[in-house]
Amino acid sequence: MDLPAHARAVLGGPDFLARRVAGSQSDPQQRWMLARPRDLRRSFLHEVVEGGGDQERWMLLQSDEVCRSFADEVLSESDTPDRQAIWLLRQPRGVRQSYVRDVLDA
User: Which superkingdom (predicted)?
Assistant: First the structure.
């Protein structure tokens, strides 16, 4: 994933800065990510943006709270919600981990 330098700085920056920028974003996914705590944003920055990791895999391995939040605040609010992704993100962590292991990493 290729992001401009200022976007990387905001993702890894202090919470007050990211939340301020979040309020000006029209994209629900960007707004959601910028409203998360700094450690989660940094994890995304290092593993997905800089590390070339898979965004879906990264999300599925997050805590139940993070996954439910993304499903409720981003996916469910879409004009055409991805019901399969919403269902998967609402599953317990063990189910999501087995999906990553048996489907994405297979």
Answer: Bacteria
